[in-house]
């Protein structure tokens, strides 16, 4: 049995994000947490690979590092069809930066046997770092395929297409490998069925702790982070746009506006 591991992160609902006064960490208690949409898509991709290669005996495992409330995101992934989960939960992780988070995930992956491919989102919708998969690949010494809009697994390799502003590139890497996906990889993730939700309640979720994965207290956490948020300014509210009524000069008025904004 080969494990397809999906890295999932619980994020605050987009409409309802707040930062804690003082240290500018996320106020997790003050907003409704959800499984990040890009990670729902990553789970969908893993499930499609498992279904396509039913004879290969793949297992879909989700892994998250997050507070106990992240259990909700785990259950969502399990109710979509993932087989089991690992949850790294430890107060010592609070305030960890991207490098520390990646290190904790690298050590957590070490707890999972027979990892074939690790699928992550290209970036989260809250931290928007877009760096965890690459740092993870560096820590583990594994190849990484980035910004993939399609992937497949065959003959000990992961193959697929990466789309960037410069074009579409065919890529392959030997397994085990880290893959990060773009939004384009699937239109929508499947919605959990009632049967899936009931089944998820019985699926195994293994809790990991920092001590259990061999991470010392001074390797993670805000007090030991290499980078710190030193200030934060809320975005100004959107101002009302300028309305142009076309009375014969509308095109010119729009062109004048774009020139004034240095957009033309
Ligand atoms: C208010 C605030 C303050 C922050 N302060 C700092 C700071 O001081 N220094 C700093 O370096 N960073 C800081 N961060 C970033 C924060 O630490 C990150 O959320 C975390 O390190 C992961 O980075 P990311 O969310 O940007 O991940 P990305 O690199 O954008 O994630 C890409 C993919 O990696 C996987 N992934 C990411 N995180 C997890 C996870 N926890 N568990 C499982 N899979 C995961 C997912 O598949 C995800 O789609 C801050 C974020 C916020 C919102």
From TrEMBL:
<dbReference type="InterPro" id="IPR012255">
    <property type="entry name" value="ETF_b"/>
</dbReference>
<protein>
    <recommendedName>
        <fullName>Electron transfer flavoprotein subunit beta</fullName>
    </recommendedName>
</protein>
<comment type="similarity">
    <text>Belongs to the ETF beta-subunit/FixA family.</text>
</comment>
<feature type="compositionally biased region" description="Basic and acidic residues">
    <location>
        <begin position="240"/>
        <end position="249"/>
    </location>
</feature>
<dbReference type="Pfam" id="PF01012">
    <property type="entry name" value="ETF"/>
</dbReference>
<comment type="function">
    <text>The electron transfer flavoprotein serves as a specific electron acceptor for other dehydrogenases. It transfers the electrons to the main respiratory chain via ETF-ubiquinone oxidoreductase (ETF dehydrogenase).</text>
</comment>
<keyword id="KW-0249">Electron transport</keyword>
<dbReference type="GO" id="GO:0005829">
    <property type="term" value="C:cytosol"/>
</dbReference>
<keyword id="KW-0813">Transport</keyword>
<feature type="region of interest" description="Disordered">
    <location>
        <begin position="224"/>
        <end position="249"/>
    </location>
</feature>
<feature type="domain" description="Electron transfer flavoprotein alpha/beta-subunit N-terminal">
    <location>
        <begin position="23"/>
        <end position="217"/>
    </location>
</feature>
<dbReference type="InterPro" id="IPR014729">
    <property type="entry name" value="Rossmann-like_a/b/a_fold"/>
</dbReference>
<dbReference type="InterPro" id="IPR033948">
    <property type="entry name" value="ETF_beta_N"/>
</dbReference>
<dbReference type="InterPro" id="IPR014730">
    <property type="entry name" value="ETF_a/b_N"/>
</dbReference>
<comment type="subunit">
    <text>Heterodimer of an alpha and a beta subunit.</text>
</comment>
<dbReference type="InterPro" id="IPR000049">
    <property type="entry name" value="ET-Flavoprotein_bsu_CS"/>
</dbReference>
<dbReference type="GO" id="GO:0009055">
    <property type="term" value="F:electron transfer activity"/>
</dbReference>
